[in-house]
């Protein structure tokens, strides 16, 4: 579904990404891990055309997407969330969800207001924020704001969903619920997921495959089991206590 081919990104003298290549299969959950500054967010920015890679190309469903703009990317079915949960703080939960629907309105203008309203309610139900539909987003807890951000992204009806550290700042219970929600997004909606995450328990429990970055380079790729046993990864990132 997604092919990342030899992408590099330079910022002045700094090599933030260095010749990174990997693929993501339809229906998979792929984890991207690595130390701070390894290039994970830069990789997301290059995939979603937030900015272009300095070298290399990205293909989505066989089509080259490098060079398109983020709106075109969303219309093709690729959606992301950002590192610090982004919701519209002064809008209600319901209004937040409807902001994500602009893409569908453009792609399929035949949808009626009623159909869109019904869809918005289904999404609120799915991500578990229905009971707060009239609550102003800034009054939600972090866990619910993240659910809402996921709901906004789902309202664009993605095929591939990229999440940048969704469990950041969450307590263990919130993280557990998030993992459950992401599994449902894959199984019930059939959405393919790429996830940047520092919470190793969440990553190892959720992902089919993991790509490890260090100083912009891919240093390993494999199943959670393979990654946890990889000496290079343990040295660079996981540390011995992570495996205890
Ligand atoms: N817009 C930018 N301009 C200059 N340097 C940048 C820019 N974006 C990222 N960098 C640099 O590129 C490197 C990779 O950063 P990036 O944010 O992609 O890492 P990361 O793995 O996502 O880190 P973290 O886990 O801390 O979010 C870092 O050295 C960072 O300072």
From TrEMBL:
It comes from the Bacteria. Keywords: ATP-binding, Nucleotide-binding, Transport. InterPro entries: AAA+_ATPase, ABC_AA/LPS_Transport, ABC_transporter-like_ATP-bd, BCA_ABC_TP_C, P-loop_NTPase. One of its GO terms (molecular function) is ATP binding. Residues 2-240 form the ABC transporter domain. GO terms for cellular component: plasma membrane. It holds the Pfam family ABC_tran. Transmembrane segments: none annotated. This is ABC transporter ATP-binding protein. It comes from Neobacillus rhizophilus.
């Amino acid at each position: 579904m997604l092919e990342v081919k030899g992408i590099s990104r330079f910022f002045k003298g700094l090599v933030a990404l260095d010749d990174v290549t990997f693929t993501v299969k339809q229906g998979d959950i792929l984890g991207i891990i690595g130390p701070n500054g390894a290039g994970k967010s830069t990789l997301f920015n290059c995939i979603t055309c937030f900015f272009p890679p300095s070298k290399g190309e990205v293909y989505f469903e066989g089509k080259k997407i490098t060079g398109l703009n983020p709106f075109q990317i969303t219309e093709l079915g690729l959606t992301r969330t950002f590192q610090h949960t982004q919701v519209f703080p002064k809008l209600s939960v319901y209004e937040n969800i409807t902001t994500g629907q602009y893409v569908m309105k453009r792609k399929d203008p035949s949808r009626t207001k009623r159909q869109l309203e019904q869809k918005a309610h289904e999404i609120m139900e799915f991500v578990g924020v229905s009971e707060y539909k009239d609550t102003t987003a800034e009054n939600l807890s972090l866990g619910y704001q993240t659910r809402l951000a996921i709901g906004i992204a789902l309202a664009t009806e993605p095929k591939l969903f990229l999440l940048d550290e969704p469990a950041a700042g969450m307590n263990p219970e919130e993280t557990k619920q998030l993992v459950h929600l992401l599994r449902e997004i894959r199984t019930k909606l059939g959405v393919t997921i790429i996830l940047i995450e520092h919470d190793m328990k969440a990553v190892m429990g959720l992902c089919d495959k993991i790509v490890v970055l260090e100083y912009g380079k891919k240093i390993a790729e494999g199943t959670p089991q393979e990654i946890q046993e990889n000496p290079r990864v343990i040295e660079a990132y996981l540390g011995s206590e992570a495996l205890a």
